[in-house]
Amino acid sequence: MLRGMYGAAAGMIAQQQRQEMLTNNLANANTPGFKADQASLRAFPNMLIKAMGTTSMPNGQAPTIGELTTGVYLQERMPNFRQGDLMETSNNTDIALLQGVMPQTESGRPGALFYTVENQNGDLRFSRNGNFTIDGAGFLTTSEGHYVLGTNGDRIQVGNEEFRVNEAGFITNDAGAQVAQLNVVYAEDPMLLVKEGNGLLRFEGEGNLPIAVGNEAISYQLQQGFLERSNVDASQTMTEMMNAYRAFETNQRILQAYDQSMEKAVNEIGRIG
Questions:
Q1: Of 131, 162, 189, 202, whose CB is crowded by the most CB atoms within 10 A?
Q2: Where does the Flagellar hook protein FlgE/F/G-like D1 domain lie (predicted)?
Q3: What percent of the chain has pLDDT over 90?
Q4: Which H/E stretch holds residue 125?
């Protein structure tokens, strides 16, 4: 009976974690470049149950009764790096990254492209949020103030918002001078990127992500005056949230039934005799 309570409690915890993930997805449904998380539920290893203290089997071993499940858990959260829809804003500082042809990977999962940015500690990070702005010194930054980097690894100083970006990422200032080219990198396995918040991703693999600029096997376009929407499907997310809530309630009722059975066992069965 106690094992059943543990299994029901494990199911409640897993569904609560899934609900929190879905709530975060829904909260970022309007965040440019946001990639929705997906949950993977997995069962704990089953236990083999045998009848102890008996020699009914010909070989003298305890007979096998069957298997006992020990509940489920949320194994991992995996971002979905599918391209989001483009939204026109007509703002010069909004630049959408539109993926084209991508190389075939060994895993079968498509790779993904990202901007390179510099966080507050000077570390290299990656992002799909093209909602940029200009700081007081004229540098191109993310909306959170992280510097956007060019192909040479330097910060990009555009001066003011009157700059132009072509499809290849070359930036021309208001005087007509070419100042930099936006750096775009390619992640063959995007699952090696970890979300840090504020639209930033950290690479957990070895070395650095290769530059996609000039790679003939990769095609992409940069669209100034556009933003990539979040790829969260709000209606599907709401449906999944309802399913997670119902699953949580089901496990809760099972746990309450076990609790009532334990109460009856303690208060009533003990009085017999």
A1: 131
A2: 112-171
A3: 59
A4: strand 124-127
